[in-house]
Amino acid sequence: MTTKDSKTNLVRRTLLKTGVATGAAGMFGGLATQGAWAAGSDKPEKEEVKIGFIPLTDCASVVMASVLGFDKKYGIKITPSKETSWPSVRDKLVNGELDAAHVLYGLIYGVHLGVSGPKKDMAMLMTLNNNGQAITLSKKLADKGAVDGASLAKLMKTDKREYTFAQTFPTGTHAMWLYYWLAAYGIDPMKDAKIITVPPPQMVANMRVGNMDGYCVGEPWGHRAIMDGIGITGVTTQDIWKDHPEKILGTTAEWVKKYPNTARAMTAAVLDAGRWIDASLQNKMKMAETVADKSYVNTSVDAINQRILGRYQNGLGKTWDDPNCMKFYNDGAVNFPYLSDGMWFLTQHKRWGLLKNDVDYLAVAKQINQIDLYKDAAAMAKVNVPKDAMRTSKLIDGVVWDGKDPKAYAASFKIKA
């Protein structure tokens, strides 16, 4: 047994011993030994699956599915694989080194269309979380009065210089939140700023040495900047778009076609884990303790547990309780692969020139988002499924997105590439 296996088993035993996994163990029942399939017809074709993740709080449902043994319930073994950057995750998915990954929504769409690396047909199995990212501004900017979008725009007009902002992957969620937010305040991210790409765990260190004025990334790296006294929260992403889609469980279309039963089992196991996390404050605390370990996020527990409980501070003395903090389940509303969510990323890729021409937005979303497979997995996990594959949202600038006319929506923005 490897050191990593020993550590995972130790964490699992500890959680079980303290009673935290009672809900998980209770849910297994007889299925833990016989598998969730009927008469062997749905037996997973591949019983061990390697799921890549980046050290971020929102990898939690993948990690906890493994640590708490939800995977066993469905006849598989999930091995979480810690990766260094989103390009690495992309490459390992494309070449088959990973079976699936905790991955940026827009990354999967970018690869499918060949605008973020090698072109390959991709599959989105479920949304892992909503909300829980942030845009951090440097303490130096805050000291000059730039503490939110409006004051940042004012400073950039009066104090002329090159401003540098970081995101984590060109077609990914963080890039889109950053660009949308800047543009909402009249800042053109393509003309008025320099945009760089930095892996999530390296954001804080890069800000500390002055490499950027701001960045958008997932937790705990927003709160960590506040704890270290080098940055402030300019905006949370849930204030840009309440209940926005964030990370997804992604893989290749080829993999889903080859291992459909395994894909369903994996999705169901991660659904169970997301439901467990959101079930209680105690579970969220235990999740924070688990994923803070150096095997996963490698940070202090207090860098994770405050914002996962909705306890926010902006680094300037303001504190608040946010009911729209990171969610992993929310009665299944988080996890459904809404077609409109995928289409939104395509509209922003078109807006910022990543896509040169309009595509058939709905058709592409239907190719990537595995709705039928998700419904099967949700039935296995006894998770509610929304009636409609489209949803309506109002973003920070007051513009409503409903997926009805994506081409017009993509062209409607005053600031665009």
Question: What attributes does this structure have?
Answer:
single chain, 417 residues, alpha/beta, five-stranded mixed sheet, 15% strand, disordered N terminus
Large-scale geometry: globular
Distance between the termini: 53 Å
Percent in strands = 15-25%
| Biggest β-sheet: strands ordered side by side in the sheet | 2-1-3-10-4
Radius of gyration equals 21 Å
Unreliable stretches covering 5 or more consecutive residues: 1-39
Overall pLDDT confidence:
92
Tally of individual helices = 21
Number of strands: 14
Question: Please, could you describe this protein's structure?
Answer:
It contains 21 helices and 14 strands. It has helices at residues 3-17, 22-28, 31-34, 60-67, 70-73, 86-94, 105-113, 139-143, 149-158, 173-184, 203-208, 221-227, 237-240, 253-258, 260-278, 281-291, 301-308, 339-351, 361-368, 371-381, 406-411, and strands at 48-53, 77-82, 100-104, 122-127, 133-138, 164-167, 194-197, 214-218, 231-236, 247-252, 311-313, 319-321, 393-394, 400-401. It is globular, with a radius of gyration of 21 Å. Helix 7 (105-113) crosses helix 18 (339-351), helix 15 (260-278) crosses helix 20 and helix 16 (281-291) runs antiparallel to helix 17 (301-308). The chain is of the alpha/beta class. Strand 13 and strand 14 (400-401) form a beta hairpin. The strands form four sheets. A five-stranded mixed sheet has the order 2-1-3-10-4, with helices on both faces. The protein starts with a helix and ends in a 6-residue tail after the last helix. Helices cover 44% and strands 15% of the residues. Residues 1-39 have low confidence and may be disordered.
